[in-house]
Specification:
Chain lengths: ~160, ~625
């Protein structure tokens, strides 16, 4: 969401830098504003929840709190992959609720300047819904897709979660 | 209007006390009608209303003072035996008490609304006609409009939510008594003690905002009064818990430093036993603090029964047992409405008129027994009448007439299922809709509320001799006993309160009726639900030919859930799945098991509810 971005900019970096957590998904690199991320944990036992959208992997026990887990691969219609030792769950606060997102690998926290963010290209090939892409960062040899999960879920939540089944 | 912060405490005290008094008052008045000679009772009633009057004049609630004063006068005459108690007087007094309740709930709601006091007061006046002392203070010369213009404080600061009520402290009261002939308006407008006669600014009369009828429910469940003894017990338990924790830390550090590893297993075993004991004690204590005696709900029934019996021309004795039985506040809040409907039904449909009763060789006066009791982890509330009972034939005929069921459906129904028709929305045996019954809403309310509480309804019907409705409710909603079951390698937890029985059956015993798998169980036909289909589980055990059926009850309905295996019984704390997953059919929440994994809690309402409206 743009408020999160602007907050960093105005409060800490004087309109200059923002910090992103970068992660991989099917060999693509994505970035998420670090302020959204609560914690990053290893894979653990996920309890399947029946009658949910296909991308809802289930729920986990996060120190006494039960939170839903979303598979970003499935959400973005990417190929399924086996979970390995690099698979991580990124726990984020989305629209006021804690949720976990399964990603292939979390690589680093990077700082980029606001100016480097370019608007997303009009046509997105990878199947990611246009609305949750908030920009693209083109840095030397790497290309980062900036995600805005809040947008993805505020739109989806009503449509999918509650009306399923 | 909202009331000044400084005096919030004073006001809360007043509200708590008044509410308590008024609740008791209703009860006492009904008892008084039965035994009018009871001087002690009479005096108690008089004292209650007097206390309310005193407190409200102290705080400057003039409308309250006005009503309570008149009521007090009438009661005073009754007390001195200048009047004898008739049902008419009682009606008027009860009406006045209702008005007082409405006014108090207005104050509680934080804004004072203009109410028509004159109607009630004028009914009280005739009983005072020979009264020696004249109520100068409250002579009903003030039109209600003036009255309420005074009540929103015309404070000098001209604050719409003014401090008059609160600020009117001793001085204001002194003023109130001293300046008796001054209009009430002026007295209420005494925010500063020095200026009791401050000229009230004429303020526009507040529009009556909300319609009446919120005086009904005065009981306030937002704050808890806890017995100090219970609090002490709790503190003790917490102390114990701290000790056990220290023990555990000690044990761990001993173990890590390699001291005496042989005894560790034993010690740990003992520790976990004690910990188990302490936590379950603690849990009980906390649970108890959330508990209220069911009396809170039962208290208002004598009054309802009295009025209803008079309206219906029936003679009824209401007998109440077990009103001290305690249950969770959340349950207490929900149980009131269904009980009212059931009692109404018992009086209206169940009991016969005195003549009919005599003709069928019964006592002239009918009896309705309302009882509550604990039974294991449940509370059982029963409403039993000795009336004519429910005639299943009449019920099925009506249901057909109203088009609620078809002939075929009826043909396949057992006697139990026919009685369940009572709960269909729109069902009523009444030809005419009256203000009491006939819309077919009542039983639907019962069903809905009981479902919400994960309760079970049973009907015992003895044609000619009466009906008994039995409600079984869980004690609390936060921690529940549950049955852990396995469905194709997934663990689910079913609230034990809904489980009626479990059985192991061979798959050959299942029958198909109209595309629905059923099991013949004693005298009824039980619809079955395969949980692995409902929950879309992968099949692992398709070759097994026996399985377990868990029979669950939701309000009046019964259904059998087919599961792979029963794992045992466990007490679990309910955890919400969060708002994203809150509306899943058949899943009521989740819980965390001993090994840290999440198990989903089956919501029997969701599973059964599919077919019902």
């Amino acid at each position: 969401m743009e408020t999160a971005l602007t907050k960093v900019k105005s409060e800490e970096y004087g309109g200059e830098l923002i910090q992103l957590v970068s992660f991989n998904l099917e060999k693509e690199e994505y970035g998420i504003n670090v302020l959204m991320v609560r914690e990053i944990i290893r894979m653990l036992n996920i309890t399947r929840v029946p009658n949910t959208p296909h991308y809802v992997e289930g729920v986990i026990n996060l120190r006494g709190k039960v939170i839903p887990i979303i598979s970003l691969r499935r959400k973005f219609d990417l190929m399924e992959a086996e979970y390995d030792k690099r698979t991580r769950i990124m726990v984020m606060e989305v629209v006021g609720e804690l949720m976990g997102f399964i990603v292939d690998e979390v690589s680093e926290v990077i700082r980029i300047s606001e100016k480097e963010i370019q608007p997303p290209p009009p046509v997105v090939s990878s199947g990611i819904e246009q609305e949750c892409m908030s920009g693209v960062i083109n840095q030397a040899e790497r290309l980062l897709v900036l995600l805005d999960l809040e947008k993805m879920f505020s739109a989806d939540e009503r449509r999918m979660f509650s009306n399923v089944a | 209007m909202s009331i000044d912060c400084e005096d919030q405490e004073l006001l809360e005290g007043f509200l708590a006390e008044t509410t308590e008094l008024l609740e008791k008052l209703d009860d006492d008045l009904i008892s008084l009608e039965k035994s009018p000679e009871d001087a002690e009772l009479m005096n108690r009633i008089f004292r209650s209303i007097h206390t309310v009057k005193g407190a409200s004049s102290f705080l400057g609630f003039d409308m309250l003072v006005k009503v309570t004063h008149k009521t007090e006068d009438v009661l005073n005459r009754l007390r001195k035996l200048e009047l004898s108690l008739t049902p008419e007087i009682m009606d008027v007094i009860l009406e006045a008490v209702d008005l007082v309740k409405t006014l108090v709930s207005d104050i509680k709601g934080g804004d004072i609304v203009e109410r028509d006091l004159e109607g009630t007061i004028s009914k009280l006046i005739p009983y005072l006609s020979e009264n020696a002392f004249e109520a100068t203070v409250l002579a009903p010369v003030f039109a209600p409009k003036q009255q309420s213009a005074a009540t929103p404080p015309p404070a000098p600061e001209a604050q719409p939510e003014g401090p008059a009520e609160g600020a009117a402290s001793f001085a204001a009261e002194a003023a109130a008594t001293a300046v008796q002939e001054a209009p009430a308006a002026e007295r209420a407008a005494a925010p500063q003690p020095v200026a009791p006669a401050a000229q009230p600014k004429p303020q526009p009369v507040k529009e009556p905002q909300k319609p009446a009828a919120k005086g009904e429910d005065l009981s306030d469940n937002s704050t808890v009064r806890v017995d100090v003894k219970r609090l002490d017990d709790l503190m003790n338990q917490v102390g114990e818990l701290v000790l056990e924790r220290n023990r555990m830390i000690q044990l761990h550090s001993d173990y890590q430093s390699g001291l005496d590893p042989t005894g560790f297993g034993d010690d740990f075993g003992k520790l976990s036993k004690r910990l188990n004991f302490v936590t379950s004690e603690l849990q009980m204590q906390v649970l108890k603090m959330r508990m209220l005696p069911v009396e809170k709900v039962f208290k208002k029934f004598p009054r309802i029964v009295r009025n209803l019996a008079r309206d219906l021309g029936k003679e009824v004795d209401l007998v109440i047992y077990g009103e001290e039985t305690e249950l969770d506040r959340s349950v207490v809040d929900e149980i009131g409405d269904p009980l009212i409907h059931l009692i109404r039904n018992a009086l209206d449909h169940g009991l016969e008129t005195p003549d009919q009763r005599l003709a069928s060789g019964k006592e002239r006066t009918g009896t309705v027994v309302l009882s509550a009791a604990h039974e294991g982890n449940q509370i059982v509330i029963s409403i039993k009448d000795d009336g004519r009972g429910i005639d299943p034939e009449r019920v099925s005929k009506k249901a057909l007439e109203k088009g609620l069921i078809t002939e075929e459906q009826l043909a396949s129904m057992g006697s139990r299922e026919i009685l369940d028709l009572l709960f269909l929305p729109g069902f009523s045996t009444k030809e005419q809709t009256t203000d009491l019954s006939g819309r077919g809403v009542g039983m639907d309310v019962v069903r809905t509320n009981i479902r919400k509480l994960n309760g079970i309804i049973e009907i015992k019907n003895d044609i000619g001799n009466g009906t008994e409705f039995i409600l079984k409710l869980p004690l609390t909603l936060a921690i529940i006993q549950s049955l852990l079951v396995e469905v194709e390698r997934e663990v689910y937890s079913i609230p034990l309160a809904s489980v009626i029985e479990t059985m192991r059956v061979s798959k050959k015993e299942f029958h198909m009726i109209g595309g629905q798998e059923v099991l013949k169980l004693r005298d009824s036909v039980l619809p079955l639900l395969r949980l692995q289909h409902t929950f879309g589980c992968q099949e692992f055990y398709s070759e097994r030919d026996t399985c377990y059926v868990v029979i669950v009850g939701v309000a009046e309905k019964r259904i059998g859930l087919i599961v792979t295996r029963l794992l045992g019984q466990q007490e679990v704390a309910i955890k919400s799945l969060g708002k994203f997953l809150s509306n899943l059919p058949g899943i009521g929440g989740s819980t965390i098991m001993g090994d840290g994994r999440v198990a989903l809690i089956v919501d029997p309402i969701g599973l059964v509810g599919g077919g019902a409206a």
